[in-house]
Design goal:
Blueprint (H helix, E strand, L loop, with lengths): L1 H19 L1 H18 L6 H28 L7 H29 L5 H51 L1
Helix pairs in contact: 1-2, 1-3, 2-3, 2-5, 4-5
């Protein structure tokens, strides 16, 4: 998995930086990582496990490399990026501390089968993707409202300038 994590960290970052933007690459990468975790349920052979490890290693690496860049892309005031990254990593820290014991409890509850852990991980990742999409839509809506406000202010200013000339 870590072997494929290297190109998974590099290739999506290049695509994000040069062509599409961090969020536009991060959203499908997170979604596909979640889908792959759900697909892990169907793995029933060593060869299947290798194939899963290759694909999940790639997309898991992409999630790791684009996480901070995507958070920065959601922040309009670049002076607040450090604070926001710190806040989000605090939340991620709690998830990192509670996720493995929860997965272990699910595996134990299911008598050594990983189905519950796969479902937990996949659904959590896909829900996280939904929150990222929602954050992107809120940011986009806020930018559109800001632009409308500027155009309204600009037209009001031009009207008041014309009235002054009269």
């Amino acid at each position: 998995m870590n072997g494929m994590g290297l190109p998974g960290r590099i290739l999506p970052a290049i695509l994000a930086d040069r062509y599409f933007g961090a969020l536009s690459v991060f959203i499908p990468i997170v979604f596909l990582a979640g889908v792959l975790l759900l697909c892990w349920i169907a793995v029933d052979s060593l060869a299947g496990l290798y194939v899963f490890a290759v694909f999940y290693g790639f997309f898991g690496g992409g999630v790791q490399s684009l996480f901070a860049a995507s958070l920065a892309a959601l922040t309009q005031d670049l002076g607040k990026v450090g604070v926001r990254v710190g806040m989000v990593f605090s939340i991620v820290g709690v998830a990192s501390l509670t996720g493995p014991p929860l997965a272990g409890a699910l595996i134990q509850r299911m008598e050594g089968k990983y189905v519950g852990a796969c479902i937990f991980g996949g659904v959590t990742m896909i829900c996280g993707c939904g929150f990222i999409v929602a954050a992107r839509l809120v940011k986009k809506d806020g930018q559109q409202q800001k632009e409308r406000g500027k155009s309204t202010t600009a037209s009001e200013t031009s009207l008041s300038d014309e009235e002054t000339k009269l």
